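Sequence only, no structure available. Ideas?
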Amino acid sequence: MMNRRHFLLQTSGLAVGALAAAGLTRAATTAKGTKMNELDTLDSIKPLDKPHEEWRDQVSTDAYAVLFEEATERPFTSPLNDEKREGTFVCAACYLPLFTSETKYDSGTGWPSFFDPIEGHIGTKRDFKLLLPRTEYHCIRCGGHQGHVFSDGPRPTGKRYCNNGVALKFIVKGEDLPDLRS
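Reply:
I predicted one. Tokens follow.
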């Protein structure tokens, strides 16, 4: 039975989700040769108009399933779960920097986990696929699904951004950003 508080919470959650979904068209562009320590700023984010289907030939089958069909990879299968070098984790489709190595931690879940994304580089929406509401997050440039955020992470944010490893690529600090795919 739904009481007024539950109704208001659900309604506000749906409204926030709709606003977040509307943000899926926001994007950023990065020129080839940009060093990863020169991260995109919110001012450089511009729309990317590329249908999800066009990514199919540019990412692996597993990455496409996660990024554009919202699948989930099996836990403990990604080498990025054990990545400990200094650098940046970027979207596997469009290479937008999403997380820095300073925010990565071992959550014990089997997926790469972070306590804070790069500001303005992810969007969120409500997800009811498992019946209980969860918060899904995605790359703000291409809309690619990354994972879910939970409120059981470490300080200072208390958040756990639980990411699918196949949805990310790791760029060691000082390396050039790969070509941005058109």
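Strands lie at 87-91, 97-100, 104-105, 113-114, 122-127, 134-139, 145-150, 160-163, 168-172.
Hope that gets you unstuck.
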